[in-house]
């Protein structure tokens, strides 16, 4: 089936990404700051205050009994959780903002989007820890993995007839459907957006390759971890219906990632615990 209309342009996709309800530049800059062991918590708090809605959500989450409560400012929240946990706190707050609505063209509810983002982030983080990789980059890549879905869902408004929204039985997977109606896939869009907002280059490359569709994709450590995180996310019941065929676990994937089945099980357990805690914070 031919693409309806002209394929979405780079400019249209980036314009749509700027309309998302969270500041990607804040996340990108935070990632850079957390790579610097000399970064000051006050400087991190100053960065987070740039996004008023994000700052307010961080304060609200930090008032949870899980954090001890009685937090009235971003500075207090940052100092309460400390350098090691700040990315998780900000990630949880950001997820609550990104998952503000259903992805109607994909048939993904807001709750499914939130749960997929959180679980994949924690799973990828723990897999990176087991494999000796960059845990913060892995967490961020897992968290932002669905950003291409968000951008395309918004960009598709008025472009795709209601009867042509994604249906698993008809289309099989998202990539086939996207190719037919949008002319570009969500993984490519995710890479484009992260590159534009100056996230580390390996992150954008990994998001483009994490389905491991080509033999060379498995040579990217972060792409492998994202794929295995998708396997764990699916096993936990939080996968998106149109991509489950990409998460088949094979000995070859584990070997390429330098992981064992025991480490995979450990990562699933740790991710489940972190996910439950994050969901409790968002209630």
Description of the structure:
It is built from 16 helices and no strands. By secondary structure, the protein is an all-alpha fold. Helix 7 packs across helix 16. The chain starts with 9 loop residues before the first helix and ends with a helix. 48% of the residues are buried. The longest helix is centred in the middle third of the chain and has 22 residues.
Could you outline the blueprint of secondary structure elements for this entry?
Blueprint: H1 10-18, H2 24-34, H3 41-48, H4 52-62, H5 74-81, H6 86-98, H7 110-131, H8 135-144, H9 147-155, H10 168-171, H11 174-181, H12 186-196, H13 201-209, H14 221-235, H15 251-257, H16 261-282
Helix pairs in contact: 1-9, 1-12, 3-5, 4-5, 4-6, 6-8, 7-8, 7-14, 7-16, 9-12, 12-13, 13-14, 14-15
Rounded to the nearest angstrom, the distance between the terminal CA atoms is 43 Å
Largest sheet: none
* Rg, Å, rounded: 18 Å
- Morphology: globular
What's this model, at a glance?
The protein has 283 residues and is an all-alpha fold.
Q: What are its keywords?
A:
283 residues, mainly alpha, 16 helices, 63% helix, globular
């Amino acid at each position: 089936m031919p693409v309806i209309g002209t394929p979405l342009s780079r400019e249209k996709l980036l314009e749509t990404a700027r309309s998302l309800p969270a500041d990607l530049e804040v996340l990108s800059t935070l990632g850079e700051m957390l790579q610097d062991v000399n970064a000051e918590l006050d400087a991190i708090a100053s960065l987070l205050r740039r996004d008023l809605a994000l700052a307010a959500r961080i304060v609200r989450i930090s008032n949870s009994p899980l954090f001890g409560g009685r937090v009235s400012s971003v500075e207090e929240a940052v100092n309460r959780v400390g350098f090691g946990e700040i990315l998780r706190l900000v990630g949880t707050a950001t997820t609550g903002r990104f998952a503000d609505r259903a992805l109607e063209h994909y048939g993904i509810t807001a709750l499914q989007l939130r749960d997929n983002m959180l679980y994949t982030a924690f799973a990828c983080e723990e897999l990176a820890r087991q494999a000796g990789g960059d845990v913060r980059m892995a967490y961020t890549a897992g968290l932002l993995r669905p950003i291409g879905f968000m951008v395309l869902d918004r960009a598709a408004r008025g472009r795709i007839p209601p009867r042509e929204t994604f249906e698993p039985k008809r289309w099989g997977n998202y990539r086939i459907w996207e190719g037919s109606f949008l002319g570009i896939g969500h993984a490519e869009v995710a890479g484009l957006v992260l590159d534009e907002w100056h996230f580390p280059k390996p992150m954008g490359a990994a998001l483009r390759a994490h389905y491991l569709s080509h033999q060379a994709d498995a040579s990217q450590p972060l792409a492998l971890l994202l794929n295995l995180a998708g396997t764990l996310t699916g096993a936990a019941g939080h996968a998106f219906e149109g991509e489950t065929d990409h998460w088949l676990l094979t000995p070859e994937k584990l070997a390429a990632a330098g992981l064992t089945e025991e480490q995979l099980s450990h990562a699933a357990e740790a991710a489940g615990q972190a996910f439950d805690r994050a969901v409790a914070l968002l209630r």
